[in-house]
Model the fold of this input.
Amino acid sequence: MTQSNTNFDVIVVGGGAIGLATAYYLSKRGASTLVLEQFTFQNQLGSSAGVSRQFRIPYPDEYMVQMALDSMPYWDELQTHTSATLLDKVGTLWFGDPTVQSTEGNIAEAMKSLDALGVPYTSLTAQEIESQYHFKNIDPNYTGLFQADGASIDFRATIKTLYDQCQQSEHVTLQQESPVINIEQTSGIFKVTTPNGVVQAEKLVTVPGPYVNSVINFLGFNIDQIIYWNMASAYFRKTDPTIQYPTWFVFQNAIGDNGNQFYGFPEVGWDHPDYIRVAPDFVMETVPEPNQRSLVPNEQELAYNSEWVKNHMTGLDPTPHFMSTCLVGLSTIPNKETLIDFAPVFVPNHKNIVVSTTGWVAKFTPYLGKILTDLALDGETDIDLTPFRLGHKYFKAFQLPSLNTY
Ligand SMILES: Cc1cc2nc3c(=O)[nH]c(=O)nc-3n(C[C@H](O)[C@H](O)[C@H](O)COP(=O)(O)OP(=O)(O)OC[C@H]3O[C@@H](n4cnc5c(N)ncnc54)[C@H](O)[C@@H]3O)c2cc1C
Done:
């Protein structure tokens, strides 16, 4: 819907998956909502780039397992709005060295959390991983688990469905090519400036993904416990069309500069038929600032990725195709993946500013939209967000350099 009005109940800054999901839930509550996106909607320059993501339930922390379980009805609801299959339930396979900790977690701890919450899974030996899932030359000491509710997310269709729903809603205005370049507050009203003009609202939801500081800096705070990964990805042609992999992740210790953690997908109908995606889950170097990321994948990371495919996967040609990058912001707070909080108390009307950033949150997309909506409209949600209310650790007061100068 287009609206000449410049006053809204809520302005959502960031039109990636989470921004659109938030606008979708805000519209269900009848809140007039503006989504500002600096690039175009469905762009390839944020964390929602690419077309597939993994939905998985295994996590070392029980609250993350619970979050994944709780998000499932929200996926079911979103599914009613599209004929595309949003979650292709091929299962989650986790395998490798059970002592290894990665940004995804740890196998042994995840088994404990699944047990505690009664989530069914199958334990696997190295031999079973090879015989049942097409991998080869697996270290005999490796263990694994298979959890049947894991899925390959058609992320492009997810984002399109949310975008279409927002566009059809009388409550949502979508504005692209509108980078936020200033935010001011007057009498409890946020005035948000983009090159297209000034818009205003009483509430803000800031979901700018890895670009989070570029937005919250205008509000007088900053996050420094964040690193930026410009992640490489590639596809491999199937030489054996009968082989189908689940979504999978391998936990291994790094070897020199080879981070040695990889993940992959099945062949899916929505993405390069006859090819499957396999990617490194590490970067050899972090990016100092989001605007310094490259769209060219790191060659050495891709070489390690192909080596893994060649040495450990069957039915694939190890030549990489369709290479790309995707930028993600990750928390440097140990075992804390995602921040969902209000702005810090030193910011006036801090409870009218909701911030969410960092982590692997594609799997929570619709659920996170609902949570951020509750926080924005009600100032609370019935979900226990204690593990995600990390603002006291993340947020630091920040003054824009130009404000110092004048
Ligand atoms: C390679 C890779 C693999 C991943 N795999 C998984 C996975 O398997 N499972 C999983 O759950 N998650 C995964 N993730 C993480 C997941 O994709 C992200 O958590 C999710 O896409 C974040 O969405 P978002 O909307 O918060 O951020 P983004 O998609 O980055 O959206 C933020 C938007 O805000 C806009 N923006 C920023 N600043 C401004 C501004 N000043 N003004 C206006 N607009 C602005 C940006 O342009 C951007 O479009 C993966 C990420 C990557 C990179």
Q: What stands out?
A: The radius of gyration is 21 Å. The chain has a mean pLDDT of 95. Residues 13-19, 36-39, 43, 45-48, 53-54, 179-180, 207-211, 214-215, 231, 233, 326, 328, 359-363 surround flavin-adenine dinucleotide (CB under 6 Å). Residues 229 and 286 are 5 Å apart (CA to CA).
